[in-house]
Design goal:
By secondary structure, the protein is α/β, with parallel strands linked by helices. The chain contains seven helices and nine strands. Helix 6 crosses helix 7. Bound molecules: S-adenosyl-L-homocysteine (SAH).
Length: 251
């Protein structure tokens, strides 16, 4: 899979994407990432990419010309047409199902904003506008890294044999169950006994309950679309009630 990012600070991508799992996936040819400096598509001496907003107001906006030129030019660098993603707090919130959808693409191009954002006309180039969440960043680079990271770990072979992206948070609409490693007792805190019992059926049942309980307490909004049996749903509701009960006592 090929990624291209257009940015005014193209140097920020390399160290993160070159390390650890993503670095190995890159050297094994699972994905390639090309960062391009937007200023290459400017034509003045100062390599200007921003200007003041019409109508007044604070800050500077990214001008449309370099962005249109860069997107068109970089699109030609490969035979596959890129799926073009812009970033904005006004975009569609990024989530795991979006990552899964993007993992089927041959090629993705990110256009990273800076300053106060972009001239609205550039969004005509976008196949999709993505938001990382309800907060404002100084630029789209972290968003591009986040999307790349979440997508690449879904690509076949990216995680290696020892890890799997099948059985984790959001894969079945729930948060992941609680996990433990050695030592079995740490500072008086013991690992749930069932996990050391060797009874795989019991472990599976405990993990399912743990996932439902955690989702009920931490992210009850996810329960609406989670795939639960009626008994599991009753268990989730009971977990919420019991938690509210203890919260009352603590007050
Ligand atoms: N003035 C804009 C924010 C601009 S922030 C507004 O109020 O909506 C500058 C750039 O950072 C944006 O163009 C975008 O590329 C990036 N950015 C900021 N917050 C983001 C978020 N929550 N998700 C994705 N990208 C974001």
């Amino acid at each position: 899979m090929r990624f291209d990012a257009i940015s005014v600070i193209p140097e920020v991508f390399e160290s993160y994407l070159g390390a650890s799992i993503l670095g190995r996936a890159q050297s094994r040819g699972i994905f390639e990432f090309h960062a391009h400096d937007l200023r290459e598509w400017t034509h003045d001496r100062h390599r200007t990419v921003d200007d003041a907003p019409f109508g007044g107001g604070q800050g500077m906006l990214m001008m449309p010309e370099p962005i249109f030129e860069a997107v068109r030019c970089v699109s030609e660098y490969d035979q596959h047409k890129p799926y073009v993603i812009f970033f904005s707090p006004c975009g569609r919130p990024f989530d795991q199902s979006c990552a899964e959808r993007l993992a089927h693409m041959d090629r993705i191009m990110f256009v990273c904003g800076r300053y106060e954002g972009m001239d609205e006309r550039v969004y005509n180039l976008a196949d999709e506008v993505i938001s990382l969440g309800d907060y404002v960043l100084t630029g789209g680079e972290l968003a591009a890294l986040t999307v790349t990271d979440a997508v690449v770990r879904l690509l076949p072979g990216a995680l290696g044999d020892s890890m799997s992206s099948v059985d984790e948070s959001f894969s079945d609409g729930l948060l992941e169950y609680a996990q433990y490693t050695r030592p079995a007792v740490f500072e008086g805190m013991a690992v749930p006994e069932v996990l050391t019992s060797g009874d795989h059926g019991a472990v599976d049942r405990w993990r399912r309950k743990s996932a439902i309980e955690r989702t009920a307490l931490m992210r009850p909004d996810l329960l609406q679309t989670a795939d639960l049996t009626p008994a599991e749903r009753a268990f989730a509701e009971q977990a919420i009630e019991e938690h509210e009960g203890t919260a009352e006592v603590q007050k």
